[in-house]
Specification:
Layout lengths: L1 E5 L4 H12 L3 E6 L7 H18 L3 E5 L5 H10 L4 E4 L8 H4 L1 H22 L4 E6 L23 H20 L3 E6 L2 E2 L8 H11 L2 E4 L6 E2 L2 E2 H13 L22 E6 L5 E2 H12 L4 E4 L15 H7 L7 H16 L2
Helix pairs in contact: 1-2, 1-8, 3-5, 5-6, 7-9, 9-11
């Protein structure tokens, strides 16, 4: 298939594009390659994708453009006919959304509109897009299920991602565009983002600097290894969304619809306490962390825990990489990449 992967210079987008190339798909990547974090890491990912394409003989084309540039998105779809679109480009980060909400409007709302509108006019067979566990917001019933209402986001980032889910439903209803939204739970692994906890903890511990441990380390996260995420993304993309024939308008299920629209959690289904996560890092590094214990940050959710059973039932896959194994793989990459 020919597949558009937006955000292919980003963490999850890079791994997704690489896996598609390895299985023989033609990949077109679209990314603005901005400076939200170190652009040299993004450039290195793009070079790695080109190497993968050269090794596998798979077709690969990289486009540098801003999703908020409507003409650029339309030109991309005019030049290529896609069998699938996997939309992973977004302005990420919870705390940054408190400082610069306009970046989230441009990327997550305007950019998403341009992609879904282009898919509509191109009659794209299936659009799969990234959402987030942050949409569960003020919910405290565990584990988080797609059947829960998600109407109390705790930060603007989560609000824009929830908006994407609703925007997708309107297009699936009006234009019968099949769409699948994937709620990612704390993704980590090699080539990860420098603003994420595992990256910062590893860097600071190696350099002998303190690490900031929010909520005094008492919160838990459903840490999910990136290879698990990617397999779920690709399997969900391969299987085109269809209407739920049992959907009841008098008792509407928030996860499905009478339109070709659906939502899935992708999480490890095994939350880990933050202190345990730090312990795993310390064990691999062979070095103790200097911990600076701090209160919960504004917008942070105390705990996340994914019910991933719907994904398993739909596509026959459930993430299962243990945190100890995933952390070790990240640290191996970090040491090699940064010569640490």
């Amino acid at each position: 298939m020919k597949i558009l992967v937006t955000g292919h210079a980003g963490f999850i987008g890079f791994h997704t594009a690489q896996q598609l190339l390895r299985r023989g798909d033609a990949v077109v990547g679209l990314d603005v390659v901005n400076d939200y974090y170190d652009p040299t890491l993004k450039e290195a990912r793009l070079q790695e994708l080109q190497r993968t394409a050269d090794q596998t003989g798979s077709a690969y084309h990289s486009i540098r453009a801003n999703l908020a540039d409507r003409a650029a998105v339309e030109q991309c779809f005019a030049q290529h006919r896609f069998d699938r679109v996997i939309h992973l480009a977004a302005q990420a980060g919870v705390r940054y959304s408190l400082e610069n909400p306009h970046a989230y409007v441009e990327s997550n709302l305007i950019g998403f509109t341009h992609i879904i509108e282009a898919c509509r006019h191109a009659n794209t067979p299936h659009l799969t897009y990234a959402s987030t566990s942050s949409v569960y917001g003020a919910n405290t019933q565990m584990p988080f299920s797609e059947h829960m209402a998600t109407v109390h986001p705790l930060q603007f980032y989560a609000a824009t991602k929830r908006a994407n889910e609703l925007m997708a439903h309107s297009y699936s209803h009006l234009f019968r565009l099949p769409t699948t939204g994937l709620r990612f739970f704390t993704v980590y692994g090699p080539w990860g983002r420098p603003d994420m906890a595992l990256f910062q903890f590893t860097k600071n511990i190696l350099e002998g600097k303190p690490i900031q441990v929010f909520n005094n380390g008492n919160h838990s996260r459903d840490f999910t290894y990136v290879d698990d995420i990617v397999e779920g993304v690709i399997r969900a993309s391969d299987q085109i969304a269809t209407p739920n024939p049992a959907w009841d308008s008098k008792n509407p299920d928030p996860a499905t619809s009478n339109a070709p629209w659906r939502l899935f959690n992708i999480g490890n289904n095994s939350p880990v306490n933050l202190i345990e996560y730090i312990n795993a890092i310390e064990q691999v590094l062979g070095k103790q962390a200097i911990k600076e214990l701090l209160p919960l940050q504004p917008g942070d959710v105390p705990d996340t825990y994914a019910d991933a059973s719907r994904l398993q039932q739909a596509v026959g896959y459930k993430p299962a990489t243990p945190v100890t194994q995933g952390v070790a793989a990240f640290i191996d990459w970090y040491r090699e990449y940064y010569k640490a």
